[in-house]
What does this fold into?
Amino acid sequence: MNNLLYNGLPTTMIIFGASGDLTQRKLIPSLFNLFHKRRTPKQFKIFGYGGTPYTDEQFREHLYQGMKQFADYEFSDDEWNLFAADLHYLVGKYAEKDDFQKLADTLAQSEGGAANRLYYMALPPMLFPVTVENLDATHQLHESGNNWRRVVLEKPFGTDLASAVELNKQVHKALNENQIYRIDHYLGKETVQNILFTRFANTIFEPIWNRNYIDHVQITVSEKVGLEHRAKFYDSVGVLRDMFQNHLLQLLTLVAMEPPASFGASALRNEKVKVLSAIRPMSPEQVAVHTVRGQYKDYRKEEGIAANSTTPTYAAVRFYIDNWRWEGVPFYLRSGKNLAEKQTQIIIQFKEPPTTMFPMQTIRPNMLVLYLQPDEGVHLRFEAKAPDTVNETRSVDMEFHYDDAFGKSSIPEAYERLLLDALQGDASLFTRADEVETAWSLIDPILQTWDAHQTPPLASYKPGSWGPPESYDLLARDGRRWLDEEASASDK
Ligand code: BG6
It folds into this structure.
């Protein structure tokens, strides 16, 4: 790891919503691992803030239990005790200015002078504005001298374009954009960052990374899990808001963007916004043709789901990017719950050879598969002559697996990287206001058509399948098919 970019001042992290699931499951195991690797600032304290009436001791015990359950690495109790000594908790409400004043006083006393602050909103988005407002009203966002104030906002960022614009407006009242870190945990995944390295740390891919050589791109984020005790939340958002507006469109931007001038936050995010702006927005007629929405069978019988819910748990969308690099190349995106496998992968399908000198052969086009999870790696499929035949070809794979190349458990939790970046002030892997809004402007017309016109009809699919038959039709109409089974098979 390069030198850490800290300014030498003590740093306090304040987690709002600290008694919730995210803190126990992801934030603390990630922060502890950063501490273990000596990557947290030298003087670093964490204050949890929430409605549950914990004492410091109860909060630590709650998080310790979480570590035992969720940390995917071994840790020693001695080291935990060292870390836990700097964990504190404050009971408070989000709409109470007095509680925020109490927070301000407690922090000032604990810091005893100039210090940096990272405020983490592990909260539902409707609480962001009031929390920021109260932080501002109690002068807790003010930067002076060398210290900094940063705010991390969890997803979902809004529920549509209008609410995202409004939310940006609200938080911008008290914060500059460079103080805001909007999280999309997919960007913290090693394999997602590796998309950029595959493309731009090598010379062999870039010359063919365009409409002249690439037939189409498939991005799949399939999940085996269902609602996981989040029925109420999920039923109010559905798959497009939960997965497409953020994770899937982010993956698309990394595959499709132009090489940025640097790895810096502005350069990188400018290129991502350019791609999003070049995606063709859809009219209602186009939504009917380019999208599929599905709901798994018996979703409506799940606890907490309305008997007439039309919330989609599956979607497939064909996007086009209207620029010189990608004109005419479809990007097929799909995601769903309760599917056959957990699989996040990007398939770059190349064009067929223009002509063949091997008659009678079915030559399969080359395919580059980025396996983002599980069994992380990159595979390149190409044709080889089958030995002891005259002219038969077979598809073979060149494979890179993270486990083989870097060792088992080489991949840290996505939050670890993102928390470290937020502490160091690197916003490259966080989404900017205009990026979030541009992404919503692509999702909004789909949502509106689905809701207002009920087109295309809500398809049904069997839990454990690869989604509704309509999703196959979407590609079949283009003479293509989802390459999931094929990609998985070549792995075996
Ligand atoms: C979250 C969604 O953002 O991402 C969940 O809200 C989804 O519904 C999760 O399950 C998937 O993340 P991962 O890292 O398991 O692919």
